[in-house]
């Protein structure tokens, strides 16, 4: 049986997700199990059978969820949406013993209240279940067994059954996140955009809880991102348990094979905060790759971790979220008790230093890149479009990406020997021109 699926992802990563899904289709799945369709703003459509949908859940590092399309029809009112939801055979998918949550996303919907529309979908499903089974499911917005998503455009309502459960960026092993972690699927998508491949040195000099490093280690060790978590589809009536057992055993075999042939990861991290590094170490140990070298270091003092050039990737502190630390310190980093309480200290400093620019820190960071990282490619994710000017480097490329609701750019700097693309100093005064 073939279904239509939609995999949402962070905006800006749609093409990367489509490529990743196409690779998943090559992972010893039967022909036609997963056929990638169009990528549209916010996600990728694909067709496939249960094995394809489950494989996407298990292997996608970039998707936020995998949604199974149940129905689509034009609508004009909440009553139309109720009728569409009431016609669907929900009793084929789950029982009234499962708890339910309904969410609606809308773009240009003419409806006045999305809250009311959400209630109508929920009522329709519960009424249908009661009429078919004699009982209705309870609602649980925190930990539902089953999630239904409705997507409204100006003209159409599409109903989806969520096959993922918890969003896919929750890999199932990360306990401690730190102050401003990246979502795992955004980090994984960025890694793909950098063109990094296992074996090439990878360095994050502001690694925090280590999201880039963890995602890279999982790629290098062929660890399927969903191997240590459960999924919504496991609670659905129609799940193909034999196919699921096969997919998991194939993923376990791939991990074991990769682990036995991988000698060194060539993945490195540092951060000024020993507290963040402790979190990263604890997470890596839980995930099964405790051997990523981590060092406490001010990024201004960073040096390449290997002789061979590689890829540097980082998301420096965002002004909106946490402060750059040690920016007034010269030489060695001086981590203090501040490291113990990011949020409170960040807030206090934001009030006292509100107008102090981070220019000194970023200029020193740019100098470190120019002087010590010849031959490397550096990728920096930031919401600050003035960053290239502050680093005094000219970017080779910039890709718009969203970190949650925060619009960011992934700047790429090619630190080519003898021809580092420096930015004239006066550019700092007028760093515009970044779309
Ligand atoms: C936005 S967070 C990075 C989050 C990280 N990507 C993660 O997933 O957890 C920025 C990091 O920069 C670190 N940092 C701030 N100032 C620094 C400095 N001068 N040198 C090195 N790291 C610094 C902070 O401790 C924080 O962990």
TrEMBL record:
Q: Does the keyword Methyltransferase apply?
A: yes
Source taxon at top rank: Bacteria
Determine if Cytoplasm is one of this entry's keywords. no
Q: Which PROSITE patterns match?
A: THUMP
**PANTHER family in UniProt:** RIBOSOMAL RNA LARGE SUBUNIT METHYLTRANSFERASE K/L (PTHR47313), RIBOSOMAL RNA LARGE SUBUNIT METHYLTRANSFERASE K_L (PTHR47313:SF1)
Q: Where is this region: Disordered?
A: 325-353
Where composition is biased (Basic and acidic residues), the residues are 325-352
THUMP domain span: 52-163
Q: Name one GO biological process term.
A: methylation
What protein am I looking at? Class I SAM-dependent RNA methyltransferase
- Molecular-function GO terms, alphabetical: methyltransferase activity
InterPro entries found in the cross-reference section:
RlmKL-like_Mtase (IPR000241), RlmL_1st (IPR054170), SAM-dependent_MTases_sf (IPR029063), THUMP_dom (IPR004114)
Q: Keywords in UniProt for this one? A: Methyltransferase, RNA-binding, Transferase
């Amino acid at each position: 049986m073939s279904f239509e699926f939609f995999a949402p992802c962070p905006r800006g990563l749609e093409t990367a997700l489509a490529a990743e899904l196409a690779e998943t289709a090559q992972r010893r799945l039967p022909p036609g199990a997963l056929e990638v369709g169009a990528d549209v703003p916010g996600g990728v459509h694909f067709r496939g059978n249960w094995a394809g949908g489950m494989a996407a859940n298990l292997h996608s590092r970039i998707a936020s969820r995998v949604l199974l399309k149940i129905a689509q029809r034009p609508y004009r009112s909440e009553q139309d949406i109720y009728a569409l939801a009431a016609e669907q055979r929900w009793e084929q998918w789950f029982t009234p013993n499962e708890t339910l949550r309904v969410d609606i996303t809308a773009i240009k919907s003419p409806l006045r209240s999305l809250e009311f529309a959400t209630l109508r979908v929920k009522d329709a499903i519960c009424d249908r279940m009661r009429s078919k089974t004699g009982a209705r499911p309870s609602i649980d917005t925190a930990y539902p067994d089953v999630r239904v998503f409705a997507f409204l455009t100006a003209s159409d309502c599409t109903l989806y059954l969520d096959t993922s459960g918890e969003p896919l960026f929750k890999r199932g092993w990360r306990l401690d996140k730190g102050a401003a972690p990246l979502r795992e699927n955004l980090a994984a998508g960025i890694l793909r955009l950098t063109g990094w491949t296992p074996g090439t040195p990878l360095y994050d000099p502001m690694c925090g809880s280590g999201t880039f490093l963890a995602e890279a280690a999982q790629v290098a060790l062929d660890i399927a991102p969903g191997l240590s978590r459960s999924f919504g589809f496991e609670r659905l009536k129609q799940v193909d348990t034999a196919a699921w057992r096969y997919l998991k055993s194939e993923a376990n075999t791939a991990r074991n094979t990769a682990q036995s042939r991988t000698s060194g990861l060539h993945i490195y991290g540092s951060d000024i905060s020993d507290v963040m590094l402790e979190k990263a170490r604890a997470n890596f140990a839980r995930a099964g790759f405790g051997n990523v070298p981590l060092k406490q270091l001010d990024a201004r003092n960073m040096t390449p971790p290997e002789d061979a050039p590689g890829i540097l990737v980082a998301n420096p502190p965002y002004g909106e979220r946490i402060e750059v630390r040690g920016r007034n310190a010269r030489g060695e980093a001086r981590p203090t008790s501040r490291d113990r309480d990011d949020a409170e200290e960040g807030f206090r400093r934001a009030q006292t230093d509100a107008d102090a620019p981070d220019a000194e820190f970023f200029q020193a960071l740019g100098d470190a890149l120019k002087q010590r990282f010849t031959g490397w490619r550096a990728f920096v994710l930031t919401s600050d479009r003035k960053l290239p000017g502050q680093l005094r480097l000219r970017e080779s490329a910039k890709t718009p990406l969203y970190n949650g609701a925060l619009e960011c750019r992934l700047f790429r700097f090619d630190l080519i020997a003898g021809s580092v693309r420096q930015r004239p100093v006066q550019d700092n005064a007028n760093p515009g021109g970044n779309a």
